[in-house]
Amino acid sequence: TILTIGIGPTRVLVITNDHVTRLVGGRDVLVLCHKGQLHATDMRCCHSGGPLQEGDMEEFDGRICIVCPWHKYKITLAEGEGLYQAVNPSATPPKQTWRSKGVKQRVHKVTEVNKNVYLTINDSEPPVISIQLQYKSTVHNCVK
Ligand code: FES
């Protein structure tokens, strides 16, 4: 099933360069605008459920990432890949390069139609880590 919902007027996100969060199909989703580009991802960080809506946007190796405020994991907004810096100690001088841990965070499709933003939830399998954290957190919240 494809689930698409309206988020609101594009200008609200683009002018404020800001974000909104929505609970969609039982999942917290973050929709944000960075330099005029719209992105969407699960709101909980794939590492340990940190609040990505409070993260900073930064570019690493030419890729736009959201940096989790809890432990500074870097997640690409286009694919949901975790990035890390690797060092080749045998190079002289030791050389640092950016590498990918693979797709860890679920990202969603954002489209603009008639100056309104629409979010289409990515339900592809297998589930990535950020989904498991959502369910864990929901259970946790119910127990409290
Ligand atoms: S919870 Fe996001 S980096 Fe640890």
UniProtKB/TrEMBL annotation:
CDD domains, per database record: Rieske
Keyword Protein biosynthesis: no
Molecular-function annotations in GO: 2 iron, 2 sulfur cluster binding; metal ion binding
InterPro entries from the UniProt entry: Rieske_2Fe-2S, Rieske_2Fe-2S_sf, Sol_Rieske_ferrdox_dom
Keyword entries, A-Z: 2Fe-2S, Iron, Iron-sulfur, Metal-binding
Domain Rieske: 11-104
PROSITE patterns reported in the protein's UniProt record: RIESKE (PS51296)
Record has Metal-binding as a keyword: yes
Protein name per UniProt: Rieske domain-containing protein
Origin species: Esox lucius (Northern pike)
